Amino acid sequence: MEACHPSWKPKVTSYGAMALAITTLEAFPGMWINAFIVCVLCIAWVQKKTLNSNEKILLLLGFSRFWYLCFSWVYCSLSVTYPNYLFVQPTFQLIVLFQTFSNCSSLWVSACLCVFYCIKIANFRNSFFIYLKVKTDRIVPWLLLASLLSALAISIIAYDIAVTELSINHNSTGQGNFSKVSGKMGEIFFQIYFTYGFGFVISFTVVMSSTLLLLFSLWRHKCKMQKNSMNSLSMDAHIKAMKSILSFFIMYSINFIFLILSLIPSTKEEKYVALLSLIFLYAFPGVHSLIVIFSNPKLEKMLIRIISCVKCKDCMK
Predict the structure, then answer these.
(1) CATH classification of the domain holding 116
(2) Which domain holds residue 211?
(3) Residue 213's closest CA among 106, 126, 289, 108?
(4) How far apart (Å, rounded) are the C-alpha atoms in residues 280 and 254?
(5) N or C, which terminus of the chain has less Cβ within 10 Å?
(6) Tens digits of residue pLDDT in 130-156
C-alpha cells in the first residue's frame, strides 16, 4: 500500500507542532490522574468485593476518560506527524469509534455523577425525589448501562460515517493523495460531532439542572444552619460541597462552549480559537478528575500517601 511507503517524510507545520506539544503535555498527566482513580478503586473492589454507587460512577468515569485521552493523543500525533498512516482503513475508523465511545461515555457518566450528588445530598420533600433517594443504589447501575449503550450507539453511527466518507474521498481524490484526504477530515468530523451533539446538549441540560437544584438545596440548608447557630464544622462541609459542585458546573459549561465552537466551521479557520479550544478540551478530563480526587476522602488520602512516599525516597537519595 502506498500509504506505508518508507520513503515518505512527514511535514510538520509550526501550528501542528504546537498543537501536538499542548496535547501531549495535557493528555499524559490526565491519563495518569484517571489511571490513579481506576487503580485505587479496582484495589478497593478486590479487597471489599464490592463498590458503592459513587465508586462505580468514578471507576467508569476514570476508565472512559483515560481511553479518551489516549485515543485523542494517538489521533493528534498521527494527524500531525504521519497522516498517511492515519487516514487509511481501518485505522481511522477504529480511532473514531473508540474516541467517540470514550468521549460520549465520559460526558454521560459525568452527568450521572452530578445526578447522583443531587439525589444524595439535596434535601427536598417531593415524594418522587424521596423515592429516588431511597432507590439510588438500584438506579445507578441502570443509569451507567444506559450511558454506555447510548455512547455505543453514537460511536457506531460515527464509525459508519467515517467508513462511508473516507471511501468516497479516496475514490474521488485518488489512492494515496493524503493531502486532499486529510483536508476533508474536518468535514467528516463535523458530521460525526453533529451526530452526538444532541447527546451533549441533553447531558449538559442534565448537569445544569442537577447542579442548580443541588446548589439551591445546599444554600437553603446553609441559611437554616446559620439561623439555628449550628456546628461550624457542618457549615464548612456544606460550603466545601457547594464550591466543589460549582467548580464542576463552571468547568463543564466552559467545556460545552468550546465543544460547540469546535463544531463551527468558521472557528476552525481561526487558529488561535482552535488552539484555545484544543487546550481546554484536553485539559478538562484531567483537571476535573483531579478535583474529584480532592473531593473524595479515600482518593485524596491515597494520593497524599503516594506523594509522601515519593518524597521520602527522594530524601533518602
Answers:
(1) 1.20.1070.10
(2) 11-316
(3) 126
(4) 8
(5) C
(6) 888 888 888 899 989 988 998 888 888
User: Between 194 and 134, whose confidence is greater?
Assistant: 134
Calculate what percentage of the chain has a pLDDT beyond 90.
10
2 falls within a domain = no
CA distance linking residue 286 with residue 32, whole number of Å: 8
**Angstrom distance (rounded) from CA 284 to CA 259:** 11
* Nearest of 91, 74, 199 to residue 146 by alpha carbon: 199
Buried b vs exposed e over 7-33: b needs ≥16 C-beta within 10 Å? eeeeeeeeebeebbebbeebbeebbeb
pLDDT band at 178 (very low <50, low <70, confident <90, very high): very low
Give the closest residue to 263 by CA, choosing from 172, 180, 186.
186
Coil vs helix vs strand at 230: coil
Assess if residue 3 is contained within a domain. Answer: no
* pLDDT, mean over the chain: 77
Contacts of 215 (CB under 8 A, 6+ apart): 242, 245, 246, 249
Total tally of structural domains belonging to the chain: 1
What confidence category does residue 183 fall into, taking pLDDT thresholds of 50, 70 and 90? very low
Q: Give pTM, 2 decimals.
A: 0.82
Whether residue 4 lies inside any domain: the answer is no
Q: Does residue 21 sit within a domain?
A: yes
